[in-house]
Amino acid sequence: MDAALSLYLHFPYCWSKCHYCAFNSIRYDKPQSLRFLSALKAEIVHCGRLPAVQGRRLSTIFMGGGTPSIFSADRILDVLDHCRGYFDFSDDIEITMEANPGTVDMKKLAALRRGGINRLSMGVQSFRDEELVALGRAHNSNVARDAYRAAREAGFENINLDFMYALQDQRLEDWAATLDKAIDLGPEHLSAYALTIEAGTRFGADHNNGLMVLPDEERQIRFDELTRTKLSATGYDQYEVSNYARPGYACRHNLGYWSQNDYLGLGPGAHSYFGGRRFSKIEDIEAYIENVASGGEAIEESEPIGPALAGREAVIFGLRKTAGIDLDEIRRRYPTPDPERLQTTFEQWSRDELVILDLPRVRLSPKGLRLWDRMAEELIAVP
Hints:
This protein is an alpha/beta fold.
């Protein structure tokens, strides 16, 4: 049996666009959305029949977006049934669906749970209504709590809640209060992301026009430290830059990304890492639908990932995980960048308290985790 495989399904519709969101999504269009679902199912059939997929079992499926939960339970489960028909599922497969609080109720969630979805990821972002308004979210804090309780009543035993912090004018005590409310609910997993400004978003335009200012680096550090300290003290282990989980509940799908496992991304704009190549699907939804309907593979960009690049990425992405990397293992799998130059870089970072060296293992310090983006750029430049 070949190595396990993961599947990502992109649902590109939302009721409205959040002010910070740069994901490939548009306002819900029912006629188009039905044609999109037909195209997505056709992609599932095509990919499930690929010779390179035969003999491999799906270990995880992740339904993201957009807002997958904008669709009815019947339509979501129809897509999942197509996956079952054309892919082999592992016995312990993790099947995650993203959901916005205002798009679910207990009846819908119960149907999804019975249909095989066993992990729910809910985009809460904040428990302060004024912050939700500022972010452009379509729900309020009471709706978020009700959705969480409904998910529990529906039988979900593995729930992630997404939050965003270091917002404009946000006080540390307000972020602490949101974290306390999240902890009191008791989800198995928490994702906590510092707000970043993305081009093409409303926040991006506001920032360019001087209407939005995020906390400076010193204040950002205080938010990061508060997050890590409070969550670790209440049983949530930080296992990746922005993700915390109770023991046994780390997201296996996302760990696959950071460990360079093969995954297929289906749907407009979805990305894949499969068969030594990285490729992405057409972002424009109409163009994607038309291409798939005509028998095409809807691939917009594709590049080979040779052993040298794969080795470099194994270092970069592996350092996202708090467990870090084993340099000897990576060297066995890939020709990595110049070992001496790489070690020199790590030794300098160790002096700067960015990494913890216990060679051959290297892992980022709390300070390094905050600066992973910048450090990744430096590693890319290592010859």
